[in-house]
Amino acid sequence: ALFGLVLASLLVVLKVKGALLWGILGTTVVGMLTGIVAPPTGIGSFVAAPPSVAPTAFKFIDGFKDMFAVSGLGFIPLVFSFGFVDLFDSIGTFVGVASKANMLDENGNLPRANKALMADAIGTMAGAALGTSTVTTYVESASGVAEGGRTGLTAVVTGLLFIASLFLAPLAFMIPGAATAPILIIVGVFMMEPVIKINFADYLEAIPAFLTIAMMPFTFSIADGMVWGVISYTLLRLFSGRHKEVSLTMYLLSALFVVWLVWK
């Protein structure tokens, strides 16, 4: 992993196209040469038929039969919790990646955010219906932005490669975590770039921003980081005599977040 971090960092500094991909491949090859990664032994190490989705697809329908009988309305808080986390994880990712791509407007808002959230919601529901891991936006998208991706064509190409990976799963599984973990560190560096726009001389702005950034890794959740940032933003302005700067929406969100933290 340390070798991969050094290699990927050097390639990024040298502005090599596809630096992150070359970092992963280079680390994997070195792992094979040192015996850490098992080398391919045949065609089965590269290509395989994708597994059937039958064991998981649409199995949630069976659960509806007993859901109300077993838990009554007890499932509602769980649905709210999952929806809340997914919503703010997605919003945090959208804003972070869009900021990296300089796609936010002069007020820091994401244009056509409703369409982006709609696509994310449809993907989440479709993935859940098929029994897959959550189909949502990921902060790793910043790596594509760093390589120059600015349009939906980047996402289309990524999707096509995911389709190809269905048949190349053995090859993908051959890549060790030690090769991909360093790339996440580099992506973290990419995501820190917009921090320079924060006015740290203004503590009313700096403290909520810092809490948002710090609480994300501490809680392993983008949503939790945003929760602490919103609450601190509202409280600091409320008790410093600048409560008129806080919108009604922020007050409602802060109250909702406090209730959610207590319930959680």
Question: How would you characterize the overall build of this protein?
Answer:
- The protein has 264 residues and is mostly helical.
- Among the domains are: 82 residues, no CATH class; 67 residues, no CATH class.
- It has twelve helices and no strands.
- The longest helix has 26 residues.
- The two termini are 35 Å apart.
- The mean pLDDT is 84.
Task: Give a summary of the structure in a few sentences.
Helix content is about 65%, strand content about 0%. The protein has helices spanning about 1-15, 20-35, 60-70, 75-100, 115-130, 140-145, 150-165, 170-175, 175-190, 205-220, 220-240, 250-264.
Major sheet: size, sense and barrel closure? none
Structure classification: mainly alpha
Q: Give the C-alpha Rg.
A: 22 Å
* C-alpha termini separation: 35 Å
Overall number of strands: 0
Unreliable stretches (pLDDT < 50, length at least 5) are: none
Our estimate of the beta-strand percent is under 5%
Q: How many helix segments?
A: 12
Q: Mean pLDDT, as a whole number?
A: 84
Principal-axis shape: globular
**Helix proportion of residues, in percent?**
55-70%
Q: Return the string of H and E elements.
A: HHHHHHHHHHHH
Secondary structure topology:
Blueprint: H1 2-13, H2 19-33, H3 60-71, H4 75-100, H5 113-130, H6 141-146, H7 152-165, H8 169-174, H9 177-192, H10 203-219, H11 222-239, H12 248-263
Helix pairs in contact: 1-2, 1-9, 2-9, 4-5, 4-11, 10-11, 11-12
